[in-house]
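Project outcomes to date are best conveyed with an example. Our students and postdoctoral researchers have been running inverse folding experiments weekly, and each run begins with a structure described purely in tokens. The record below, which covers 380 residues, was selected by the lab manager from last quarter's runs and is presented without edits.
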């Protein structure tokens, strides 16, 4: 979000400054326009993230299916193709627009949930549209360009020493050849260095501990029991062999931790929601703009913001009809894309989706932690 806000402001400011000097622009670049740019960028990469490009879309491919022996037939394989992927995303991506329309006022106006990352981005955009903020944005973009150039040139330099897999700086045996056989080496990748810099210590230490325990202790120990724990004739890449232990132990740990966090956030969300309802005695679902009558004075600016926020929105009747229409089209169309998918699976998903959307939206507003991917894992 921060990168999108920073680069959106910088590039559009360059463009508006250029056409302003040519005499074609008279209006200033406003924070509202910056917010629209931010929203479009976030929506685009959210589609890439939650649309399955990093997991299930490619998990259905023949390449992944070839690693298994059960149910490895044409009905269970769907190779990625731009045509059906675009159609699939059009079918499933618009439903959130209609499902969350009735929740806008409840979450933002009535409950005043903070949505920490969104609030931080709003402060960032507000800061950009001040003289000091514009100067700071230029410095940030200049620093971004320096490190981008260094990373690009370093990757280009590494290319000269790469002749194939396991060659060059990408597989440098930093800890020795014996450790290299257990996949302990350094690849000099700026990508992972950057990820380590941006991730909190708990994530970095956890990944390091997991790598040492798995590749240093568990996998060599399991490999030494080859022929006893699994057939010695199997390749290490077979899911019935060593790869099966790697995959299913890792998935079990991820699902166990995800289920724990899911229950924890769900309990926190339920308790906070019950406290809020008890405090205000009624659930805030009225159509009247403004904050709920809590006895607290509301400033004129706050009233104007609420009025503007509630002025342009999709009517609830249109939202309900749109949700039903999208659900009907999906129920009729998705089984054509995926023959193994039954229509009543989709119907059940659309019945439960609004409830899960409310829970996830409320939990995200409180904790800034979206559990959308966890809902998907539990559904599987």
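After processing, the design step wrote out the following sequence:
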């Amino acid at each position: 979000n921060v990168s999108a806000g920073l680069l959106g402001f910088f590039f559009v400011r360059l463009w508006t400054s250029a056409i302003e000097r040519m005499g074609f622009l008279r209006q200033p670049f406003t924070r509202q326009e910056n917010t629209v740019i931010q929203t479009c960028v976030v929506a685009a990469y959210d589609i890439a993230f939650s649309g399955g490009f990093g997991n299930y879309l490619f998990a259905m491919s023949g390449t992944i299916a070839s690693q298994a022996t059960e149910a490895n037939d044409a009905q269970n394989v769907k190779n990625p193709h731009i045509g059906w992927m675009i159609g699939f995303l059009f079918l499933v991506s618009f439903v959130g627009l209609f499902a969350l329309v009735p929740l806008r006022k409840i979450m933002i106006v009535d409950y005043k949930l903070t949505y920490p990352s969104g609030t931080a981005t709003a402060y960032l955009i507000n800061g950009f549209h001040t003289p000091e903020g514009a100067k700071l944005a230029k410095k940030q973009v200049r620093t971004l360009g320096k490190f981008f150039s260094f990373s690009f040139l370093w990757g280009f330099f590494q290319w000269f020493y790469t002749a194939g897999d396991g060659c060059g700086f990408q597989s440098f045996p930093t800890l020795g050849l014996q450790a290299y056989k257990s996949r302990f080496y350094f690849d000099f990748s700026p990508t992972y260095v950057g990820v380590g810099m941006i991730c909190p210590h708990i994530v970095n230490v956890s990944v390091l501990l997991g790598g040492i325990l798995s590749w240093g202790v568990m996998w060599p120990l399991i490999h030494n029991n080859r022929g006893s724990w699994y057939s010695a004739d199997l390749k290490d890449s077979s899911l019935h062999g060593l790869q099966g232990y790697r995959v299913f132990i890792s998935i079990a740990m991820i699902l166990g931790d995800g289920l724990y966090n899911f229950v924890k956030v769900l309990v926190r969300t339920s308790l906070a929601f019950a406290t809020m309802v008890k405090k205000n005695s009624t659930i805030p679902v009225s159509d009247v703009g403004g904050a709920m009558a809590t006895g607290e004075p509301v400033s004129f600016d706050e009233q104007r913001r609420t009025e503007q926020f509630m002025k342009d929105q999709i009517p609830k009747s249109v939202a309900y009809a749109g949700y039903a229409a999208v659900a009907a089209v999906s129920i009729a169309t998705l089984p054509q894309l995926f023959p193994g998918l039954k229509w009543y699976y989709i119907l059940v998903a659309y019945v439960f989706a609004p409830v899960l959307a409310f829970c996830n939206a409320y939990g995200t507003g409180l904790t800034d932690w979206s559990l959308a991917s966890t809902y998907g894992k539990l559904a599987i």
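Residues 2-164+261-379 form one domain. Residues 242-280 form the longest helix (39 residues). The training component of this project remains on track.
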